Amino acid sequence: MPMHIGEKEFTNRVDKGLGDDFMRGAVRSAQGRLQSNRAGAAEELGDWDQWRDLGQEIRSHTMENLDFYLQQLSEKVAERGGHVYFAETADDANQYVSEVIAKKNAKKIAKSKSMVTEEIALNDILEENGCEVVETDLGEYILQIDDNDPPSHIVAPALHKNKEQIRDVFKEKLGYTNTEKPEELTLFAREQLRKEFLSADVGITGCNFAVAESGSFALVTNEGNARMVSTLPKTQITVMGMERIVPTWEELDVLVSLLTRAAVGQKLTSYVTALTGPKDEDEVDGPEEFHLVIVDNGRSKMLGSEFQEALHCIRCAACINVCPVYRHVGGHAYGSIYPGPIGAVITPLLGGYDDYKELPYASSLCGACTEVCPVKIPLHEQLITHRRNIVEEEKKSGLAERLVMQGFSRVTRSSKLFNVATKMAPFLVTPFVEDGSIVKGPGPIKPWTNIRDLPVPQKERFRDWFKTREKGGTGHGQG
Amino acid sequence: MKVSLFITCLGDVFYVNAGKATVELLERFGCEVDFPETQTCCGQPAYNSGYRENTKAAAKNMITSFAHSEYVVSPSGSCAYMFHEYESMFEDDPVWQEKAIKLKEKTYELTQFLTEVLKIEDTGSEFHAKATYHTSCHMTRLLGVKEAPFKLLSHVKGLEMVDLPNRHDCCGFGGTFSIKMPAISEQMVDEKVEHIEETEAEILIGADGGCLMNIEGRIKRNNKPVKVMHIAEILNSRGEV
Lengths: 479, 241
Ligand code: SF4
Known about the structure:
The structure holds two protein chains of two kinds.
Chain A: H1 10-19, H2 21-44, H3 48-64, H4 66-79, E1 83-87, H5 90-104, E2 108-111, H6 115-119, H7 122-128, E3 132-135, H8 138-145, H9 163-174, H10 182-199, E4 202-205, E5 209-211, E6 216-221, H11 225-231, E7 235-241, E8 245-246, H12 249-264, E9 271-275, E10 289-295, H13 299-302, H14 318-322, H15 324-329, H16 340-351, H17 353-356, H18 368-372, H19 379-393, H20 399-413, H21 415-429, E11 433-434, E12 437-438, H22 446-449, E13 454-455, H23 462-472
Parallel strand pairs in A: 1-10, 2-3, 2-4, 4-7, 5-8, 7-10
Antiparallel strand pairs in A: 5-6, 6-9, 11-12, 12-13
Helix pairs in contact in A: 2-12, 3-12, 16-19, 20-21
Chain B: E1 2-5, H1 9-13, H2 16-28, E2 32-34, H3 44-48, H4 52-65, E3 71-74, H5 77-89, H6 94-106, E4 107-109, H7 110-117, E5 126-133, H8 137-142, H9 148-154, E6 157-162, H10 177-180, H11 182-199, E7 203-206, H12 209-221, E8 227-230, H13 231-235
Parallel strand pairs in B: 1-2, 1-3, 3-4, 5-6, 5-7, 7-8
The structure holds iron/sulfur cluster (SF4).
């Protein structure tokens, strides 16, 4: 279960999140900033909804023809002398990368940010093999030196830490002596990282989008570190989820615009690095050897399923940035490197319901995620679909809940029963009423009344009032 | 114009005054209101919890109850939206699916009906208070009714409307979410109540029974001095408070 992070139990993770005031403060302020940036940038682009339609179209066309585009991509990469490996599972991918590294006798690996390598836990394997892995994305680097604290966000992995905490990590682990000013922190980290780049034997990058027509890869970063990782070391390995692909440069343009604006509200997240396999003889920059690892790890099961649209995700994190549940519990509570709404959708698909069946319920279905998603994934609907699978296919919902729902079904299908039930309700709750409210409810009402008052069911229901009024012929408009 | 009222289960049992106000308001604008007595609940709690099969019976009952109606109007955005879900629920059953589409097409949330069908923005209402409005998620995001309540409220004489900070944030109700994930729901509703207090409004207005029950429940529990009212009660008011 490589995706997994933190404690085993969902409720423990949630409690931990809710109790962590530092984390919640950091998340709250970051969310506010990201949301308003996004709104501003979307406005600037013109008709945001039309752009989203276009994004959705591109993604859905690509998924419908994924075989074709993957084939085309592989051919293009091979034409330029690159090696392509299709990994069905996380283990396959890790093994392939390990073999390449072993053949090179490489000891030091520089990495740029990559969610898929987190997903397959590549670092763990490489370290087991005796390699030193250096994360060069600033956020990832902070987490790595903080004893591998797991990421809590897919774009800003260290979002749960504030600048004072980062200063303390640097101080404790690297002897940093300056202040918590972001510029000073960044400068310090850059100095540390520069040394690492120069001495790395192998560079590993992720990939935001692979361009099928040319066999190129686009990496979007805030720091330009991907460029260093992909040009300095002699051997370069790019690891991509099998769905991170676009047909041509034209579509790339649209999706990068959507990604950068939806993510942090920038026109371009500072740097878009394009790589095209190993360098030609007349080129100065670039690796001598290039490997592309395409990872399936459960994705092909989503193709053709009711969750195919989840593969449209371009990992912009806009859904995470607006999610009120994420704001309160933080990324670690999801127990997965993919948190927030998109995490609640894909984690159970990649990791199974046994370990992640609570995630689809960690949403009030408010739809804020669906509303912002730049490629229009109906995220909250997918959560309902998960719930339906858990209840109807997997039969994993609790007995008490099933009984309540069966009762609900019986009462709502029959107006007679509904009538009796709602007529009886005021009398049934009488023992629990205090000052015109229910404050300590029994059984299933308890979780409600632990927090809130519940109104008392009225003896004269609306339907009773309406009936009397009709009979009494009070006439229209006089109430 | 003939209008059938879809009162919703919460409206039938808890928020009777909002229902009365809805009827009176519609009648004031010339509607002939009927109440199909066989109506129960739209099935939302079961549907959103994943019990689609258990929801179908409720859906069929609602479709049948309103089969005769010209227009269906509901004082609750999320329940009106639930009628939109029936179409996909019966994807394997063309007969019921067709009926579901018919129901969807004639169903309106109250403020939507007033502004879109009756073309009314000024209801000639009067209500003296400082108030703020809670935008419910399903009504705004799914049903797409965003401006109607604000337009209507802006014409109410004596009503001073204050913007609710972060108004697009969910109040933490989410149907069964509120009892399945109570700790998270509590934080969400607390944040909402905090923002309401920041406005210094005396009244919180809303257009969805579920959200109102949640916010009001928390306000009462913590003895906050804010009154919660349904938008129909405000619009039906002629300054007689
Ligand atoms: S689901 Fe949509 S909003 Fe969320 S990360 Fe993916 S593309 Fe972005």
